[in-house]
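The following record pairs a protein chain with its ligand, fructose -6-phosphate.
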Amino acid sequence: MCGIVGVVGAPSSGDLGEVILSALERLEYRGYDSAGIALVDSLGEVYRERRADRRASVAELRSLDLPSASVGIGHVRWATHGRPTVENAHPLVDCSGQLAVVHNGIIENHLELAEALACRGHRFRSETDTEVIAHLVEEGLAEGVDLLGAVRQALGVLQGAFALAVMAACAPDRLVAARRVSPLLVGLGDGVGVVGSDVAALIGETRDLAVVEDDQVVEVRAGSLRALDAAGVPVTLAPLRVDWDLAAAKRSGFPDFMSKEIAEQPEAVRQTLLGRALPDGRLRLDEMRLADAELREVDKVIIVACGSSFHAGMVAKYAIEHRARLPVEVDIASEFRYRDPIVDSRTLVVGVSQSGETIDTLQALRAARTWGARVLVISNVVDSSMAREADAVLYTHAGPEIGVAATKTFLAQVVAMELLGLYLAEVRGILFPTELEEPLARLAGLPGIVGEAVERSVEVAKVADALAASRDFFFIGRHVGYPVALEGALKLKEISYLRAEGFPAGELKHGPLALLDEGSVVVAVATRSRLWEKVVANIAEVKARGARVVGVVNDGDERTAELVDHVLSVPRTAPLLTPAVDVVPLQLLAYHLAKRRGLDVDRPRNLAKTVTVE
Ligand code: F6R
């Protein structure tokens, strides 16, 4: 997803251009296809360089001899409107080339704006929706309005989602930034003012950051921030608590972020559990703006999420229905608000999102709120957009996840779901605080069990060697093993580009079985659950069709191990916690298969870490 950064002033950490490129390097994890930088140089001219060499673009910009500058902006682009070419790479400029803009989001009415601007004599040089912003601001400046005023004027006609930063040769001491929907932060560092899409971009310069809210516009100078709301009234920006440091955003000696983040899973689980139990035995979420009485009124839970977070949401259905005896629906966020869901003030809508910024989930939660629902968010990013808009927040303290494929945040979400189920059960009087002791003790033991699973990477690598020539994978599981199967299949397809589908094991005979042949691999989540015997029967079904079977099998379960061709062994844990353990060998299998194929596991093709367009 696009990432933006802007810096104004004299950074103590190096040349301004270098500071921007370092920030872009830290934004690379969002996934990008082109990148660019614009600076106002010491002659007062706009200097601009862009590259569209996919992942090499920022590195190519690094090799340039950048001029010294007083203000600059940078961008990594993930194309939505216009192909990933140099012409379409940001920053984009006005007719004079002396005003530049970077943008994340989509300007929905760009076609009509561009048509009107062209009639007024503006010349367009890209196929992007963003370029209209540069020309609109250009018009404001031509009328004698200052940069802040000109950006505000432009905002008045823009429709859609955006986080943007604008700089101009005529205003070399400032940047102007604005936001509607897409995330945006501003801050002040040593000698600089900064703007960026997320903490990773700005953390090299400062931890003193603030959140720009919808329809606010901010003038950023070295040493001062001036923010206005949509009506032009000065506002104080909400400070952002930053719980990351620069080291956390680096690989720490691992060959890639994915292996680092898989290894960090025990710690991610431990951190997510930390401080949850109060001395009186009650549970604690991070932020709770709902009274217990309101939670007692809830008669239905709807979980909305995308991708891996959706799979964690599926686990929540089992946890909440079992623990709190509340009916739970799980919805793909991008579908939720386009049907006619039955939502009212007694509905608790739970958004699950690692980033807390995924636009589909954010908009689903906003729709739920307009329909009167109470909104609870499970997010890994403190003060993310979703967290700030929710009635209640449960953070997964997994630390920053840089690899595009979700790993440690999935485990932390599974843990958060169990905590949420217990919390709702307690508030609703289904479980007494003393009855929480046993499930909490099981949770407390989980980091050690996950640690054991993580340490078996070498065993999994051997299975990956044996499967190196396979192309077709089917993942099956039942009960909470079903979301694990879906997650295993998603990991494999996204980082190894192999065909992989997940099914509830009992569904195979209703169709997918027809796809199986001698070349197929079936990965069965066959740990000792209530439905283990049924999974074993499903394994027999697929073996009879000639498929090779890989089984995720509990330690010591010789009977299942003998039935399958390859064993991925895992330690045993409590039924509702098994997804957090059983998924580990599947993450590792995807990792090793992708590595054998020579693929970049951190930045799979066509994918972005945070999806901030619909
Ligand atoms: C898969 C993956 C994605 C995300 C999805 C939701 O490995 O990372 O499927 O899970 O894009 O993202 P969040 O959780 O940030 O809302």
